[in-house]
Specification:
By secondary structure, this protein is α/β, with parallel strands linked by helices. It is about 40% helix and about 15% strand. It contains twelve helices and nine strands. The strands form two sheets. A seven-stranded mixed β-sheet has the order 4-3-2-5-6-9-7, sandwiched between helices. The protein has a two-stranded antiparallel sheet with strand order 1-8. α4 links the parallel β3 and β4. α8 packs antiparallel against α9 and α9 packs across α12. The N and C termini lie far apart (about 60 Å).
């Protein structure tokens, strides 16, 4: 492990040796800034008994930090060339399990059920939000998630009620987690340089969900549908909703009135707690 993988020159040299040209379609933007790596590991609050999932291990710059400080690391990499490099680079590390797999095809629940309590990753921009959703909605949602994401995705995850970025993914994340942006990351910290700014997002699991919800499936289904029509009044939206979401306008307005909410309210104006309350009343 003589290569310094936070050095641009060393990263380029390793990729040249491996005959790899970074694939933008796979989100291959390699971190080349030691300070950002340090922020990630501090935000993860790594402990000797942690079992960590890393998605998108790349050249192994973060993997190296994880296996040095935790009990077990499950690292996933899609690119066969990078996977082979990781196998060679970390040969002999008994606390590392490497898997070549598309993270979107990963049986996330099964991986988390194996004992994983934290997820630390530099996620590809194209699939980052989908992977985060899989993690936060899992029955075995980890106690902490620290990930590099596109800054605009980070803003949606952390948005508060009424904010223009507030949407269904904000609710899903904040229902179980305290979500915050730990650091904004310049495009200059990667090679190749991406066209967008990134952010390190920290999810710390709450001791219990932010509010009681008798049917979490209904919460996720309802908010996903409602935010497709975020500019419409909620009562109007539910009138045309499919299946069990459908309610006539008068019924929805009566429920909203009983919650002391304007019957003309739009989805972006309901807090996580109010969405849970609404679900419970619709369930009745």
């Amino acid at each position: 492990m003589d290569d310094n993988l936070t050095s641009l020159a060393d990263v380029r040299a390793v990729l040249t040796r491996l005959k790899i040209r970074p694939n933008r379609g796979l989100g291959q933007n390699f971190l080349v800034e030691r300070g950002v790596l340090d922020v990630i590991t501090r935000a993860a609050d790594l402990q000797p008994d942690d079992q960590v999932l890393e998605i998108g291990a790349g050249l192994g710059v973060l993997t190296e930090q994880l296996i040095a400080t935790t009990q077990r690391v499950w690292a996933v990499e899609l690119d066969k060339r990078l996977y082979d490099h990781l196998v060679d680079r970390f040969d002999g590390n008994d606390n590392l399990h490497l898997q070549q797999e598309d993270a979107l095809k990963l049986d996330m629940d099964a991986v988390l059920e194996s004992g994983i309590n934290k997820v630390v990753a530099n996620l590809p921009y194209s699939v980052g939000s989908r992977i985060v959703v899989d993690l936060v909605l899992s029955p075995k949602a980890p106690e902490r998630i620290v990930t590099l994401l596109q800054h605009e995705v980070a803003q949606r995850l952390t948005a508060s009620v009424g904010n223009k970025d507030y949407n269904a993914i904000s609710i899903w994340s904040q229902y179980r987690y305290d979500v915050s942006i730990a650091h904004v990351v310049s495009p200059n910290c990667f090679w190749p340089r991406p066209e967008v700014t990134s952010a390190i997002v920290r999810f710390v699991k709450l001791s219990k969900p932010r509010a009681e919800c008798k049917d979490e499936g209904l919460l996720f289904e309802l908010t996903k549908y409602a935010f497709q029509y975020r500019r419409k009044q909620l009562a109007t939206t539910l009138r045309g909703a499919p299946g069990r979401l459908q309610r006539d306008t008068d019924t929805t307005r009566a429920i909203l009135d009983s919650m002391n909410l304007d019957s003309r309210i739009r989805p972006e104006r309901l807090s996580v707690e109010q969405w849970c309350d609404l679900c419970n009343r619709l369930k009745k």
